[in-house]
Design goal:
The complex is a heterodimer. Chain A is built from 11 helices and no strands. Chain A is mostly helical. By secondary structure, chain B is of the alpha+beta class. Helix content of chain B is about 20%, strand content about 25%. The chains are: A mainly alpha, B alpha+beta. At the A-B interface, helix 3 and helix 7 of A face helix 1 of B.
């Protein structure tokens, strides 16, 4: 994996090359560097926290087949976390590993969306959350395969294969349960209404997003809104579910302002490293 | 109608295999989900390149009680095995 140019050593050739490109495709300036780390933490934290939430179903799924499928998705996401946070540590340049970032940051340092930290609810609610996120995650990763940073493009390419399956699966489940029995339909509609406001945070761009988009590293999330609407509307129509009309967005997760739920997740996830620093097996 | 999902038999063609082999069974609401479940349950360690599923009720099986008439007659027909020929060395492995 290529590493970032060393900022401390003047590299005339490298600088000239960057100047020639207008600097648009290299996270050269410090501000860009900070935004880049921030962006990578968002990618990694979304995968980490949703992966952790999904792993809570392990051994508790309604049927064995769904239990294993959910655990597989959790493992895919944790694997992606290792790649994103590993790169975040590398770009940050302070010697922090993916494990350090996952296990030794506190809630306000996490950059995941509020949607992924919310409690699982019933299995239908977990699947609805998965679908709303998958539809976004898929579009985001697909755009990231064309990132100006080759390391980002590489991770996105690997993750996109996994997430394509996640989306296919969760979309089918939402349709099956939405268009199922009166009971399953009512539960899926309630889950959709409940999570809708949290899903809107996915498209709320901030300064970090704008900087990343300008550098050609990542798509502006606002630009994913239209294709997400198309996917979600098509699936909801087949699922006979009604799209909520409200456009209110619960925001803050991406900037580190979380719901009370994240603290409980971290308490469970980080306990061992906090109680026995450096423990490994 | 039973509230249980129907049972499916799963056949997987492995990385180096030419044939699909029976690997087990699972429950699923339809064929599409059965393939997805099979993918999740039976190919987690990169076992397969192709999956077949078939409803267990659609499999016709020989009856264990007919084992005698079905299989025993071939027991003493050793001449049905091609072991009575001398194979020239030049042929190599057949």
């Amino acid at each position: 994996m290529p590493s970032l140019p060393d900022m401390m050593t003047p590299d005339a050739e490298g600088l000239a090359r960057q100047a020639g490109q207008g600097g648009a495709h290299a996270p050269a300036a410090d501000a860009d560097q900070d935004a880049f780390v921030e962006f990578l933490l968002r990618m990694g934290d979304n995968a980490l926290i949703l992966g952790h939430r999904n792993s809570e179903w392990c051994g508790h799924g309604p049927v064995l087949e769904e239990d294993i499928a959910m655990s597989n998705i959790a493992l895919d996401l944790i694997g992606q976390t290792a790649l994103w946070l590993g790169l975040a540590g590398e770009v940050e340049g302070k010697g922090r590993s993916a494990d350090d970032l996952a296990y030794l940051r506190d809630a306000w340092d996490f950059r995941n969306l509020l949607l992924v930290e919310r409690p699982n609810g019933d299995f239908g609610a977990t699947l609805m959350r998965q679908f709303l996120f998958d539809a976004f995650h898929f579009l985001q990763l697909r755009a990231l395969t064309g990132s100006a940073d080759p390391r980002v493009a590489e991770i996105a390419q690997k993750a996109l294969k996994e997430v394509s399956y996640h989306l296919e699966r969760s979309a089918e489940q939402v349709i099956a349960l939405g268009d199922g029995t009166a009971e399953s339909h009512a539960r899926m509609q309630a889950a959709l209404d409940d999570q809708w406001g949290y899903a809107q945070e996915m498209f709320a761009s901030d300064a970090t997003d704008v900087t990343m988009a300008a550098a050609g590293i990542a798509p502006d999330p606002a630009s994913l809104r239209k294709p997400w609407d198309d996917t979600v509307d098509a699936v909801l129509a087949q699922a006979t579910l009604k799209r909520p009309e409200s456009s209110f967005a619960h925001k803050g997760g991406k900037q580190g302002t979380h719901t009370e739920h994240l603290g409980y997740i971290l308490a469970e996830m980080q306990f061992l490293q906090r109680a026995y620093p450096g423990a490994s097996w | 109608m039973s509230s249980e999902w129907p049972l499916w038999e799963v056949f997987i063609r492995g990385q180096h295999g030419l044939n699909h082999r029976h690997v087990g069974s699972l429950h699923a609401p339809d064929a599409d989900m059965a393939i997805k479940h099979a993918r999740d349950v039976y190919t987690r360690r990169n076992e397969g390149v192709s999956i077949w599923v078939v409803k267990s009720v659609d499999i016709a099986a020989s009856s264990p009680s007919e084992k005698g008439p079905l299989f025993e007659p071939s027991n003493d027909k050793v001449y049905r095995h091609p072991t009575f020929y001398d194979i020239p060395d030049e042929v190599g492995h057949m």
